[in-house]
Amino acid sequence: METLALLADGFATSLSPLNLMIVILGVTAGLFIGAMPGLGSVNGVAIVLPLTFIVPPSSAIILLCAIYYGAMYGGAISSILLGIPGASTAVATTFDGRPMAQQGKAGLALIAAAVASFVGGTISVVLFTLFAVPLADLALAFGPAEEFALVLLAFTTFVGLGGDDVLKTIVMICLGLVLSTVGLDLISGSPRLVFGDLPGFYAGISFLVLAIGVYGIGEILYTLETSRTAPSVTPAKITFKELGAGFRAMNRMWKTMGTGSFLGFFVGMLPAAGATPASLMAYGIARSTSKQPETFGKGNIEGVAAPETANNAASTGSLLPMLTLGIPGSPTTALLLGGMVMWGLMPGPMLFIEQPDFVWGLISSLYTANFAAVAINIALIPLFVWALRMPFTVLCALVMVLCIVGGFAPSQKMHDVWLIAGFGVAGYLLRKADYPLAPLVLALVLGPLMEKSFRQTLIAEQGNVLAFVERPLSATFIALAALFFVLPLVKYLRKGGRRSVAPAE
Amino acid sequence: MIYKMTRRAALAGVASIAMIAAGATSALAEGWKPQKPIEMVIMAGQGGGADRLARLFQSIIQKENLASMPVLPVNKGGGSGAEALRYLKDNEGDAHKIMATLNSYYTTPIRNDIGVDIEEFTPIARMALDTFVLWVSADSDIQTMDDWVAAVKASGGEWKMGGTGTGQEDSLVTAMLEKEFDIKVTYVPFKGGGDVAKNLVGGHIDSTVNNPSEQMGFYQAGKSRPIAAFTPERLDVFPDVPTARELGHDIVYWMQRSFVAPKDMPAEAVAYYTEMFEKLSQTEEWQQYTTDKALMADFLSGDELQAYFIEERDKHAAILADMEGDGSS
């Protein structure tokens, strides 16, 4: 077992006092960065990158990975407490996390998220340890056609299983896709839908702007109207008893968490796919295989666990193409790649052979980072829950400020702040009319990816649409997508066409 | 006595501190320094040649302490760099933004009306000229340029040539190849050179024109094969790979790797960045990298650089006009 020997050597590196301290520091910083809407792992890693020269390269990459991990854990916090996903990977966590918080079960939801993240992270690190090198070939087998099929699958898990009203879901997906075409065309470079040459639109509409608008501002407007002065959130308490209950609840969800972990790891491993489709698909599968699918979206703890296992597993998975192929799977891994270049390490097929000390030190640090993250996260839950006990009048103003700052900070353009305001009002109206918002936001994230891979395939295959089903991998995904699309239709017909009247929320 | 002594010593100490402080302020007043992190906009996607190079520059700047503020690379690769060009234009007068350029710096504004005139931008420094090589996957039977031409002809126009976008450097070389050999390929655009390299090795495209730096990892792992170099002379890193010129096909093409800044950047800031890159070009790391990755280091700045940009732009306008003429015929 050569791998185990190498891993043991790696642990010798990552368990040194300096590196352990670095992991704890990085995870704590990452947790807070991830919990802030508008700040994500990208910002955290970018800010810290220049500071890493003071420590040796192996410690530096451990620090960056610890921040990356911490931020993935932290992303769930604002999704659950405020209903604002801080990153696209945490959108699915809002579906059940937010309702749980509103029912006064914020502590339980946070425990679920932390434990699920830990399970997802750990299972995927084990997979990474055992199969990193052979799996690189699978990542290579993914061309544009497969990419398209995968994104299509992510969409259909949504249409089929998302809202109660399929038509409204489709309308929102279409709207999101239209928004995603704003800006410069990916392939030809021509400006599209820039509203008479408004410079702000050239960069397109970013996920963050839309998410902060519809979830942040829109949610506040909606709550203001529905609750007037009464606090909308039942104050949450967190005790050891609750902690125990949380662990027991998690213990019943091994199937969900196992599926989420494997799915997250494999989807995250594919360059360009990443954690967002992974978390969605995990949510979709958890819901469709559940015995009580109708409780999803209304505060089912499984709806928190599934996407959180998947997005953490995916964040480990996305390190795989970065290390073995030199192709970053996400903006954050691109920064990590930059860091490695900085220390004179060239990621690519030769890295595992030429720099085993570095690689195995990094892998072993993922184990320690995972342990540190779950411990610190659970220790800090009372603090996060306490934040929710603030009077609504105070919380509301605070969230509003966070939204505006979080939207302005990345681009430093007032254009984005106006867009947030616009999306906020639109989001409020759409919510009132019972349109689900998640498909809108996710279509914006996945749309450009889908468009690009669709066009690349058609160009490469001389316009042959059948290319998608002629390739075995992409054909499998498309078949699954078709299944997901048809399944709810069959269920619907079996029920004799009775329509659920529950609000799609 | 003792009291007096200490008092005198204390006075002297205060005086010397004051002098140091005065010295420090005058040093500060001398030159402009960035007040916040410097944004390094990259005209291409992640993992490609331009991206890796920009991140290398960032690392050398940080390591050698060439800038008083951190440098943050930002990828704006959409639409063959149109996203980055437009961004630079919209940040007129900004002293904390610089952009790493490719040849799409010339071609993108010619091909699309994005309201950008590169003559308005402020030239900073040209760091190097990068080279191009024709690549196939190591699984392919193609060993020589002749094999390649024969294979393209046999495919009847379905030969998939990957690249970073129509009008980008590699697409110009591809167009030159098509013209030289009277062949037709299907050009498939990807987001960056790294993506192109991966798709070649994964077998999703048949051949590419990549910078050596983009394929080096796969080449060393025995997964891709260089066929011919588009340089006047053989590259030191691939001594057995012939140049197209040697084979009787005069195709030579360079890619400039430079830095520019927005229109009306304050002159002191321009001087600061120019000096920063000049120092960078003399570092050992940079010289090592240019040798390893087959780049030609050739520093140029100021008006000379602007003149070079304009000359190259006109050259590219001619190449593009030629390409489009062919397309319509």
Please write the string of helix (H) and strand (E) elements of chain A: HHHHHHHHEEHHHHHHHHHHHHHH
Overall 3D form of chain A = globular
| Adjacency order of strands in the biggest sheet of chain B | 2-1-3-10-4-11
Distance between the termini of chain A: 50 Å
Rg of chain B is 24 Å
Give the SSE string of chain B.
HEHEHEHEEHEHEHEHEEHHEH
Major beta sheet summary of chain B:
6 strands, mixed
How many H/I helices of chain A? 22
Termini Cα gap of chain B = 101 Å
* Largest interface: pair, residues per side: A-B, 46 and 57 residues
Please state roughly what percent of the residues of chain B sit in beta strands, choosing from under 5%, 5-15%, 15-25%, 25-35%, 35-45% or over 45%. Answer: 15-25%
Helix content of chain A: over 70%
Unreliable stretches of chain A (pLDDT < 50, length at least 5) are 497-505
Overview of the molecule:
The complex is a heterodimer of chains A (505) and B (329). Chain A is built from 22 helices and two strands. Chain A has helices at residues 2-14, 17-35, 41-48, 57-81, 91-102, 106-140, 144-161, 166-180, 207-227, 240-251, 254-269, 275-289, 302-317, 319-325, 331-342, 351-354, 356-388, 392-411, 414-432, 438-460, 467-470, 472-494, and strands at residues 183-184, 191-192. In chain A, strands 1-2 form a two-stranded antiparallel sheet. In chain A, a hairpin with a 6-residue loop joins strand 1 (183-184) and strand 2 (191-192). Chain A starts with a helix and ends in an 11-residue tail after the last helix. In chain B, helix 4 (104-111) crosses helix 11. Chain B has helices at residues 2-30, 49-63, 82-89, 104-111, 145-155, 169-181, 193-201, 212-220, 267-281, 284-292, 302-328; strands at residues 38-42, 71-75, 97-101, 122-130, 133-137, 160-163, 186-189, 207-210, 224-229, 255-261, 296-301. Chain B has two domains: 38-130 and 255-324, D-Maltodextrin-Binding Protein, domain 2, CATH 3.40.190.150; 133-253, Periplasmic binding protein-like II (D-Maltodextrin-Binding Protein, domain 2). In chain B, strand 1 (38-42), helix 2 (49-63) and strand 2 form a beta-alpha-beta unit.
